[in-house]
Design a protein that fits this description.
4 domains, single chain, mainly alpha, two-stranded antiparallel sheet, two-stranded antiparallel ribbon, 10 strands
């Protein structure tokens, strides 16, 4: 080809789906670089369009839920860890995977070393049994404790499993089995239940961050958005199998800037276990496993509330609450508030140190063992809390500003406080009568908070005065009713 002819031709990307290589053509010339690519493009145009169910399954293959399902199947050697699952069970499992990802335990060491992995009650890859991956047999645990637990036996009344001898040969897989083959066997096993799950109303299938990045890179190839062309054209299948780190490098080469990955902090371990205890306490079938979780849940809730008042985290946003006072140091000193030599700052330092020690040594291992199905007692944790804390304030003080929806905030804080009030009552830190009148105290605190905010806002004359809600109005908005002679508003306003 002479130079004069080359100058008249323009570079074009081959439109064949399997090629995508650049070549020179005259303006308005052929769309492909060769006859073979032309036939391939013709075949792809004539191919039947995928149905709605096929598109759903194709997108489901790029979700984090399916990645977890494939990994569990390869670990136990069969896809029958999902034997008998219904659409509702799949939805529950997908919600658990999303919750585990939201705990952000993978931010530090990556997904392969997640700090909060999905653990099985009955061992997934047992010698004689295979643990089922139902919601009642899996929970979000801690990687270190899960490794320590190892292959220890779990009582028969906890979790769900099937004998390994009942596994069917056509559903067996290995760690070397390709993902595509495992997915095909999963579709054969689940059948219509998978179709019913994918067609659920309101179901949103979200691709993984790796799949989204692979699609972005593929869509930029050969377009004006590709500032710096890649060394070669990649197919979408190649990019979907590429590691996340290499995808980041490819996208940085295309766009000229590094991909931003937000650095969020992981959730606190005991908060993760508390959420799982709450789930097991409400969803497990009646039995000893559920009873143990029900007994441990209020202890963990009270401990988290006690720990939160020392600045570890905020369990109820936009509130200030120090419900307990530290009333124990050791057997020699007795109750610290009776010793005049202890300042409040030293008491807080002692309480903060004691809370950190108890969380690591006592509450985290006990809560994990409860979820794991081990038959352990919670009486020691109960005694630890009753010796160390006493009730100081039963209702938090809301923090309001000029944009706060007072009635909506009061309803939200009240619903959040009910679980902690029930836990305090179960632990014996308060009486049933105090819990009955706690919403009234919270309403008085809300009214005082609005009065204080109104005083601050009154300094700016351009703003209209904020209305102060009556206690009856707050209680009515939250659906709380008292008899007319059950309270005296002035008394509670003074207590607030």
């Amino acid at each position: 080809m002479t130079k004069s002819n080359t100058d008249k031709q323009l570079e074009h990307i081959c439109e064949s789906p399997k090629c995508r290589k650049p070549f020179f053509r005259r303006p308005g010339g052929r769309a492909t670089c060769s006859r073979a690519c032309s036939k391939a493009l013709e075949r792809s145009v004539k191919a039947p369009k995928p149905t709605k169910d096929q598109r759903r399954k194709a997108k489901f293959e790029e979700t984090g839920t399916l990645n977890v399902m494939v990994r569990f199947s390869q670990r136990c050697g069969s896809v029958e860890t999902y034997r008998g699952m219904t659409a509702e069970d799949l939805h529950e499992f997908a919600a658990l995977v999303s919750t585990a990802k939201a705990c952000r335990g993978w931010m530090q060491d990556g997904h392969q070393n997640d700090q909060y992995p999905i653990c099985h009650v009955q061992q997934l890859n047992g010698t004689a049994t295979v643990g089922l991956s139902y919601g009642s047999n899996v929970f979000i645990g801690l990687r270190k404790l899960n490794e320590q637990h190892g292959a220890k036996s779990v009582p028969h009344w906890a979790g769900r499993s099937i004998p390994r001898t009942s596994l069917r040969r056509r559903f067996l897989v290995t760690t070397e089995t390709p993902k595509k083959v495992v997915v095909e066997k999963l579709c054969q096993l689940l059948g219509k239940e998978l179709d019913r799950y994918l067609s659920m109303d309101g179901l949103v299938l979200k691709r993984t961050g790796q799949a989204e990045m692979a699609r972005r890179i593929h869509n930029r190839i050969g377009t004006v958005r590709e500032l710096n062309p890649l060394d070669r054209p990649y197919t979408l299948a190649e990019l979907l199998e590429t590691d996340f780190e290499k995808l980041q490098a490819l996208e940085a080469q295309q766009t000229g800037q590094k991909t931003y990955v937000p650095d969020y902090a992981a959730k606190l371990p005991l908060n993760v276990l508390r959420s799982e205890l709450q789930r097991f306490a409400t969803t497990l079938p009646v039995g000893r496993h559920r009873e143990n979780c029900v007994a441990m849940l209020p202890l963990v809730q009270v401990f988290c509330l006690w720990r939160a008042q020392y600045g570890y985290d905020s369990l109820i946003p936009n509130t200030s609450w120090k419900p307990f006072r530290y009333a124990y140091c050791d057997t020699e000193l007795g109750e610290v508030e009776e010793d005049t030599g202890f300042s409040q700052s030293r008491i807080d330092a002692l309480a903060r140190s004691e809370a950190t020690r108890l969380e690591t040594a006592t509450f985290i291992p006990t809560a994990y063992n409860m979820l794991q199905g081990l038959d352990v007692s919670s009486s020691f944790c109960r005694g630890v809390l009753r010796r160390r804390i006493k009730l100081s304030s039963i209702a938090p003080i809301p923090l309001v500003d000029e944009e706060t929806d007072v009635l909506g905030m009061f309803t939200y804080v009240l619903e959040e406080c009910r679980q902690y009030w029930s836990a305090m009552e179960a632990l014996g830190l308060c009486t049933a009568q105090e819990v009955h009148y706690a919403p009234l105290q919270l309403a008085a605190n809300m009214q005082s908070a609005v009065e204080h905010a109104r005083f601050v806002w009154s300094k700016d004359c351009s703003r209209p005065p904020y209305p102060i809600p009556a206690i009856e109005e707050l209680l009515s908005a939250a659906g709380v009713e008292y008899a007319p002679d059950e309270y005296a508003p002035g008394e509670y306003r003074q207590a607030a």
